[in-house]
Specification:
With 280 residues, this protein is an alpha/beta fold. It has 11 helices and 10 strands. Helices cover 34% and strands 11% of the residues. The radius of gyration is 19 Å and the shape is globular.
């Protein structure tokens, strides 16, 4: 229904889970939360969420917060990441993890990130003891002026890919690529608490959140800024974080306890009519 339902291959993950195959980016009748969010699951200006259609959020706290702010029709189903892990559990024998995968805070098409990448490189060098992989968002990855800071530092620089859309396959493997990278690294780190940090904690990475948090152009005050993140999750900030605490927070925020079964999801998403083998 909404283009964001298909970002990062989310609709394809759900389609695969429901038995339609990952090649099908099916139309979801509602709005799926597409990234970790500590407001109500969506952008502050969420007028594009058509009234009367359901909002599929990752955790109970977001449903409660949305309700308190006048939003209705929430269904807590867990994150697409949780469904991906259900389909791709860790293998019994895996290569020994090594190094850190580092995710600098990124912008998006309408608002760029402002910060000192040279300073961030120095901070990373001062903390990380092994090899470092820096994963840039596709916008920053395409900017040679940003990418050069990390390449010149000798870091391996990668991108999980474009976020994609329903009509192309560019973002269809985004989360699978991210899962593969996280499982090969010992640590995951960023200058902001983010989806990537929670994803990494959920698959056994040690976690770190440190460095210049940078600023987003016209960042919305509703989120509360860095001060709110520090106030709500002080245990998840620093160069060395308790792994058990990080996994517990990740499991809650990613909604591992709320996974729906395939039949239930088909009904919720409007996919129950399978007479033609797939949904429109």
């Amino acid at each position: 229904m909404d283009e964001s339902n298909h970002w990062y291959g989310h609709s394809r993950i759900f389609a695969r889970y429901c038995g339609f195959g990952a090649e099908n980016a099916l139309r979801i009748q509602g709005f799926v939360q597409h990234g970790w969010n500590y407001l109500h699951g969506y952008a502050p200006n969420d007028a594009w969420c058509t009234p009367g259609y359901p909002r599929f959020v990752w955790s109970e706290v977001l449903a409660r917060r949305g309700w308190s702010m006048g939003r209705r029709g929430h269904y807590v189903i867990g994150s697409p990441w949780a469904y991906l892990l259900a389909m791709e559990p860790a293998q019994a024998e895996v290569p020994e993890r090594a190094g850190t995968i580092w995710y600098p805070f990124h912008g998006w098409e309408k608002h760029a990130v402002r910060g000192d990448h040279a300073r961030l490189v120095d901070e990373i060098r001062g903390v990380e003891k092994g090899p470092v992989t820096v994963c840039l968002y596709w916008l920053e990855y395409r900017d040679p002026e940003i990418r050069k800071w990390y390449e010149r530092a000798g870091f391996r620089v990668i991108c999980h890919g474009d976020r994609g859309s329903r009509w192309d396959g560019r973002g269809s493997g985004f989360l699978s690529k991210q899962l593969g990278e996280l499982r090969r690294h010992r640590r995951v780190a960023s200058n902001r608490l983010s989806s990537a940090i929670l994803y990494g904690a959920s698959v056994g990475c040690d976690v770190a959140v440190y460095g210049d948090p940078m600023t987003l152009e016209e960042e919305r005050p509703e989120y509360g800024g860095t001060e709110r993140r520090l106030r709500m999750w002080p245990e998840l900030h620093g160069t060395e974080i308790d792994s058990t605490a990080a996994r517990e927070v990740a499991a809650y925020e990613l909604g591992f306890a709320h996974l729906a079964g395939p039949e239930e999801l088909r009904v919720l998403f409007g996919w129950a009519d399978t007479r033609r083998g797939r949904c429109a």
